[in-house]
Design goal:
- This protein is of the alpha/beta class.
- The protein has one domain: Metal-dependent hydrolases (TIM Barrel).
- The protein is built from eleven helices and ten strands.
- It has an eight-stranded parallel β-sheet. A two-stranded antiparallel sheet has the order 3-4.
- Strand 5, helix 4 and strand 6 form a beta-alpha-beta unit.
- Helix 7 packs parallel to helix 8.
- It is globular and about 55 Å long.
- The mean pLDDT is about 95.
- It binds zinc ion (ZN).
- Zinc ion binds next to strand 1.
Length: about 290
């Protein structure tokens, strides 16, 4: 089973505007399918992409970025109930991941998380510190962590770079999660993007917090040799049982092929690297299947 743990839902003009996508991916001129989300039926389009990539299940994420964009710029907001409806229509292909803005209305956020998990069977919470302008160490976010622990779901943090201009870099560093892990040792955390470009910080985090995971979403943007070098370190320091396959939308139809061809690519490039089929299976689905109860 192949599981893509990092797919964003949303429809152009309804949940986000064109400028949002343009900013997100402008640093990558060779984005393979930047226009995928402009399709008339984005959900049918997403399923086509999953089919062509051989992905069985996608963890589809909500996002609420209304608070940082209050000036009529057109906010980016894919609500939890929209994600729940997509999962209800395609229960064999999607697993829902909820999102709350921890600083918008903390009491309502906790109620929303309850509803998402208990009524809509969502399996994780996504948080976006840089997009939503908060420090993960901020005590105002602690009630959200307490709720995550109570609901027994993992929390998936976007850490690392984004092309979005109004997303402060000071909230992107993986090390910001260390104090969260010290304070909430029972919380399961997934660090998105390996915290790129602060990959070593992410590795240190995972070496300390031995039950945490990381995903490789966005790495489809880079030459595969970058991925191979990162994976060598990851295996040595953390072990592949804690690495999760994820695409980030523009690479959802293409990244599995790159990923499954890593041994061949390493050979062609003269890099000493070999991953076993067993480890590939863990990263591509086994690890996520256990973590997200799929
Ligand atoms: Zn993402």
């Amino acid at each position: 089973m192949i599981v893509d743990v990092h797919v964003h839902l949303g429809e152009l003009g309804k949940h986000f505007q064109k400028w949002w996508m343009d900013e997100l991916y402008r640093g990558f001129p060779n984005v393979p399918d930047k226009n995928v989300r402009y399709r008339e039926d984005p959900i049918a389009g997403l399923i086509e992409d999953l089919d062509s990539a051989g992905v069985d299940v996608a963890c589809v994420m909500a996002s609420d970025h209304r608070r940082p964009y209050p000036y009529g710029t057109g906010s980016s907001y894919t609500p939890n109930d929209y994600v729940a409806e997509c999962v209800r229509r395609h229960p064999d292909r999607f697993v829902g991941v909820c999102n709350v803005d921890p600083l918008r209305d903390p009491h309502e956020a906790r109620r929303e998380m309850e509803k998402c998990v208990r009524d809509w069977d969502m399996r994780a919470l996504k948080l976006y510190p840089t997009y939503d302008h908060f420090d993960p160490r901020d005590e105002r976010v602690f009630p959200i962590y307490e709720k995550v622990i109570e609901l027994e779901i993992p929390v998936h943090f976007h850490m690392g770079y984004t092309g979005t201009v109004n997303a402060p870099m000071k909230y992107q560093f993986p090390h910001l999660l260390d104090e969260v892990g010290i304070r909430f040792p029972e919380m399961k955390v997934i660090v998105a993007h390996m915290g790129f470009p602060w990959v070593d910080e992410c590795l240190c985090l995972l070496m300390k917090h031995r039950h945490w995971y990381a995903d490789i979403a966005y790495w489809g943007a880079f030459p595969p040799t970058f991925l191979i070098e990162m994976m060598k370190k990851f295996d040595y320091m953390c072990g592949y049982h804690r690495l999760l396959y994820g695409s980030e939308n523009p690479w959802k139809a293409t990244f599995t092929k790159t990923f499954m061809g890593l041994n061949r690519i390493a050979e062609e490039e003269g890099i000493k690297f070999r991953i076993s089929d067993e480890d590939l299976k863990k990263i591509l689905g086994e690890n996520a299947r256990k973590l997200y109860r799929i």
